[in-house]
Amino acid sequence: EAARKLFMGEVDFLKGVVAMDGLPPDDRAEVCFAGRSNVGKSSLINALTGRKALARASNTPGRTQEINFFTLGEERYLVDLPGYGFANAPVAVVDKWQRLLKQYLSGRATLRRAFVLVDFRHGIKKVDEEILTLLDKSAVPFQVVMTKQDKVKAVDQEKVLEQVRTALSRHPAAYPEIVTTSSEKGDGIATLRAIIAGLT
Ligand code: GTP
Ligand code: MG
């Protein structure tokens, strides 16, 4: 209930950041949403906050091109990151975001937890492994959030979860619990809200 109140309360877009010196002051607890292009990061932020178009989502990979900061209440930031992996943008531009993404993930003191989104249809890929290893090295605690649960039949879900569990067992910075979600149907959204509300 407290979590619902927090997310239904004041949520605003603060700014889009294109370089490390543009980051807002690190005076709040911060959680970010990382993952391959098109995995559903922006859609998840919209589902969490109950706003349809707070974060811009689209079917074109590479939609989010900046580090977007949202204020959640008075004490937290939600951070929507550009995707990694394939993107519909020129290579030089993509390289620039990827560098910024890595700098952010390894150098943000107030980052309490990185949520790494994994598409339920695909499981953990090689590009994800790179990011997970970076998070280990930077000692950023991370938690996997499965997305697009509505696209995979219940009988096929366990096999993917097993692949993810096995991959996570090799990463010291990983939380073992996996959150399964559908931004489309709303599954797992309350669980994720409660996790974020509980972080201080
Ligand atoms: P980039 O910003 O390009 O890295 O992508 P993103 O990770 O922010 O993905 P985005 O939220 O823009 O979603 C990509 C596509 O997946 C959109 O067409 C969404 O509607 C769709 N999508 C996201 N979440 C879900 C979900 O839970 N279920 C279904 N069926 N589709 C989803
Ligand atoms: Mg996005």
From TrEMBL:
A molecular-function term among this protein's GO annotations: metal ion binding
GO process terms (BP): division septum assembly
Similarity annotation: Belongs to the TRAFAC class TrmE-Era-EngA-EngB-Septin-like GTPase superfamily. EngB GTPase family.
Pfam family, one: MMR_HSR1
Keywords: Cell cycle, Cell division, GTP-binding, Magnesium, Metal-binding, Nucleotide-binding, Septation
Domain spans labelled EngB-type G: 27-200
Role description: Necessary for normal cell division and for the maintenance of normal septation.
Protein name per its UniProtKB record: Probable GTP-binding protein EngB
Gene3D superfamilies: P-loop containing nucleotide triphosphate hydrolases
Any one GO cellular component localisation term in the record: cytosol
Keyword Cell cycle: yes
InterPro entries: G_ENGB_dom (IPR030393), GTP-bd (IPR006073), GTP-bd_ribosome_bio_YsxC (IPR019987), P-loop_NTPase (IPR027417)
Cofactor: Mg(2+)
Presence of keyword Protease: no
Origin: domain of life: Bacteria
